Amino acid sequence: MCGIVGAVAQRNITPILLQGLKRLEYRGYDSCGVALHVDGMLKRSRSTSRVAELESQVETTGLAGFTGIAHTRWATHGAPASHNAHPHFSRERIALVHNGIIENHDELRAELTAAGYVFESQTDTEVIAHLIDQMYTGDLFETVQQAVKRLHGAYAIAVFCRDEPHRVIGARQGSPLIVGVGEGENFLASDAMALAGVTDQIIYLEEGDVVDLQLQRCWVVDVNGKPATREVRTVHAHSGAAELGPYRHYMQKEIFEQPRAIGDTLEGVTGIMPELFGDKAYKIFKNIDSVLILACGTSYYAGLTAKYWIESIAQIPVNVEIASEYRYRDSVPNPNALVVTISQSGETADTLAALKHARSMDMVHTLTICNVSTSAMVRECELSYITRAGVEVGVASTKAFTTQLVALFLLSLTLAQVRGRLSDEQEADYVKQLRHLPVAIAAVLALEPQIIAWAEEFARKENALFLGRGLHYPIALEGALKLKEISYIHAEAYPAGELKHGPLALVTEEMPVVTIAPNDALIEKLKSNMQEVRARGGQLYVFADADSKITSSDGLHVIRLPEHYGKLSPILHVISLQLLAYHTALARGTDVDKPRNLAKSVTVE
Question: CA 73, CA 339: separation in Å to the nearest integer?
Fold first, then answer.
């Protein structure tokens, strides 16, 4: 969600800024822009199209310079329009880009309007530009340090001044921002991938930091204005992972990468041991009495699945909270709980805020399941398990979700082992099943032709229901989310037993009802729920295990998964739902990788 790139160099940085924006496209955006210091003036180009269109504009105008900033915007304040796109100018002296939300922008806007500033946009960002201009006394670094004290909310900003060439100032609070260190040049970006191929020397700014980038130096002060030393890390960001190859869309590529991603996530796991999660894990796991999971969206559904696993295998009570709701209600803190956050990017603003809220209530035992080892979430938590999904470009999560599930299953087994509830035989059996997952997933992917036939039917619908029971109810939720995200079909999921308590009123022959039917202890109950749908003329589309004894008939369509996979069955069943959503969206002609109104990395509240 929104992306920043900035640079100070002795060469034309326009190609670097534009390439950085292309590498940040996966985050989601609806406008983009670039601003440069050119012959003592500020020059910019903005577009409500893709970065490729912005690049064409820049080539046409010949925009080039040694100091500049660039941005991809996901609209919050103000519609996706050219006048709302970043960078924003103030009196042709200050140029600024911003990620985040300024909560007191109305108050500041009124103050600045009274001081004579004219606003050209509806954004909260333009307020920051004018505020810095108003406070400017000749030293941009000092001015930004003072200006950010007036801001309430979350921000990552990059700003430069007409009167100070070869200088860019960055600041962050609640939104990620990194520094790229070069030879006689320095860079800013939202994440290291934007700078792949430019520099691998990265500084991760901390909360409240302000950084002064010049040609030969990078100077950081902390939230108190004191000089701060930040470690320079070598980070190899693999931009090549974002190449499409033979696939039509990144989402399709990422669905088919799941056997590899899960294999990589399990690399080195030869047995169950607390050290998989960090050196302090055994001591922490031994002393906790419950688990609190905090997450959003798809990661929340991974948490719901983990609740079934942890309570069944480790017999520890689990609460799963939507992160954006958790810190705004009166909850009862438990200092003996393990707080688990789940995030693909590790920068999800709602989840980070929920984590900090839990810690403020003395819930200090923290663990994150995350796909980015250098993210804020990993730095904030005592323990971590890094999934190895690789770069996920498609907004609708696929391989990030299944690798999260694998990590959470390992956590379930580890908690059980520490509590003496996992025998050696059980451990060996579970590890064997985990190791076999890539092969089992490949067999599900081979069902794609059958799923395509279903998708052609789904593409003509505007509503769908998804049903699951027990461990597979969260997977039904995830399947419904995938369909609505990328095909724009309204889809809802329910525990199958809840159908008769209301949702059955929606069932007609025009309502497809997707049912997850593993051959587990609830299969006979599920068959009864399916009969309720058939009796009302509903069309059932059932993903069944090979041995579940459900056969196709009028109004009952069945695709058989190759094998039943016990407690790991959700990982196989969700693959089929991902394929159904993808091919339905394909048939409807939607933008699969960049669905409307959505962003990949949600770094605002």
Answer: 32
**Cβ pair 63, 38 in contact under 8 A:** yes
- The whole-angstrom separation of Cα 14 and Cα 118 is 29
Report the distance separating Cα 151 and Cα 223, nearest Å.
13
Question: In whole angstroms, what is the distance from residue 363 CA to residue 169 CA?
Answer: 36
* Sign of the alpha-carbon dihedral angle for 210, 40, 166, 98: positive
Two structure tokens written together for 594: 């960049």
From start to end of 422-555, where are the E strands?
463-468, 490-495, 512-517, 539-545
Say which range, 198-207, 317-326, 552-561, has the weakest mean pLDDT.
552-561
Q: Which amino acid is at 544?
A: A
Write out pLDDT tens, residues 33-92: 999 999 999 999 998 888 889 999 999 999 999 999 999 987 777 777 888 889 999 999
- What Cα–Cα distance (Å) separates residue 393 from each residue in 29, 352, 389? 13, 22, 11
For 485, phi and psi rounded to 5 degrees?
A: -60, -45
Mean pLDDT of 207-225: 94
Rounded Cα gap, residues 180 and 276, in angstroms: 30
93: its two tokens: 């002296």
SS3 label, residue 324: helix
What are the tokens at 71?
């941005």
**Cα–Cα distance, 333 to 290 (Å, whole number):** 11
CA separation for the pair 552, 387 (Å, rounded): 38
Helix (H, G, I), strand (E, B) or coil at 596: coil
User: What letter represents residue 314's amino acid?
Assistant: A
CB 69 within 8 A of CB 17: yes
CA dist., res. 160 & res. 18, Å (int): 18
Closest CA to 211 of 461, 8, 513: 8
In whole angstroms, how far apart are CA 327 and each of 272, 321, 342, 367?
A: 33, 10, 16, 18
How many alpha carbons lie under 13 Å from residue 39 in its C-beta half-sphere? Answer: 3
Chain centre distance of CA 188: 21
Among the residue ranges 256-265, 373-382, 469-478, the one predicted with the least confidence is 373-382
* Distance from chain centroid for Cα 589: 24
- Give the pLDDT mean for 241-266: 88
CA–CA separation, 588 and 486 (whole Å): 10
Q: Where does the pLDDT of residue 583 fall: very low under 50, low under 70, confident under 90, or very high at 90 and above?
A: very high
Instruction: Give the catalytic positions in this structure.
Output: 2, 600
